[in-house]
Amino acid sequence: MEEEMHTDAKIRAESGTGSSPRGPGCSLRHFACEQNLLSRPDGSASFLQGVAEKSRERLIRNTCEAVVLGTLHPRTSITVVLQVVSDAGSLLACCLNAACMALVDAGVPMRALFCGVTCALDSDGTLVLDPTSKQEKEARAVLTFALDSVERKLLMSSTKGLYSDTELQQCLAAAQAASQHVFRFYRESLQRRYSKS
Amino acid sequence: MAEPASVAAESLAGSRARAARTVLGQVVLPGEELLLPEQEDAEGPGGAVERPLSLNAGARSRVRVVCGPGLRRCGDRLLVTKCGRLRHKEPGSGSGGGVYWVDSQQKRYVPVKGDHVIGIVTAKSGDIFKVDVGGSEPASLSYLSFEGATKRNRPNVQVGDLIYGQFVVANKDMEPEMVCIDSCGRANGMGVIGQDGLLFKVTLGLIRKLLAPDCEIIQEVGKLYPLEIVFGMNGRIWVKAKTIQQTLILANILEACEHMTSDQRKQIFSRLAES
Asked: How many domains does chain B have?
């Protein structure tokens, strides 16, 4: 589905999977609702509008699966729960970073660390790394990459908008350079944690 | 063979295979590769090391290094899979290169053969007890694995009892199995843990610290109140003192030990000893 978005973006700027029925009179996306999910409160419900949420979960899951050594834990499921405290732009990249830190904290064996970096391209072609929500809304393309820590290889990319091939390569190079800062931050925060003991 | 690989690795920003010796005691992250001592001698500074040509090119004298928790073999090198401090233990009797492992802090226990753990009996089905040890599967414990147990003389174990035993089978492919006797058939402290007392959970790193041979915490706690204490490598501690209040105080101290420095601990102990 990500490949579809990649090629489709060259033809027309569109967000989402484009498969939701938007008839002439009704311009609402697909709904899904679940009730009574939580046992403690008296009532709870979950409402899903559009399919953006599911695709973000799938992207994070695929990135984690590429990095976690699942062969050491057969017949076991590893659940990652991400709770959005505040969304100030670059949400997917932030979720990826949080998932990586959580997996390290849990002691799940991994073959590398990973991080997420978001780039936004505005109408002039200027590249902005780690855009705010305002910059994301005004950009003509937003690209999120997940990179691994060993050789800065690309693990996952999720793109939305209109961009050329050279711009993609530029964004990827900028993201790889930026990932160094993220990994350095991981190292510092983990060293701080272990220095307390 | 190893040299061009290390040159290529050096050119990649930040990812360099370092010699394990130089990283001892430091925090290592998943994805790092470590060189064993034998390999870095072969590479040398600049690679121009003169070695006598051997007719049997493949057989270099390899030092046998044991790869402990948190490390995996990756070709000729060690790949770090968990975050923590790298440790090394010299071999006792001279053969081999010792053990390398990563000291990580985690809460989740993964059953390992030979570990002594505290389990809670959750079910009794026929001749087998199912014991919850905190892993992904309950361990099985046969009723004959107690000291002096025979088919006629069954041990008195009920659902909900605490068991202190060790794993005889614990790998990723099979359900873990535990027993409460050692290889000679004696209990050696294992079996059903008595009445009363308190079971609580701590991190695995704290248990290893408390079980280290020269741990001051246990000596200080022992001077405070008379107590019975059982440590399970699965992060569970059972403690029992004369009164419930003392038991709770001891449980709180042990849980807090993780975050306290030794000075703070000594302060708390002296304050408790006075009251």
From this structure: 3
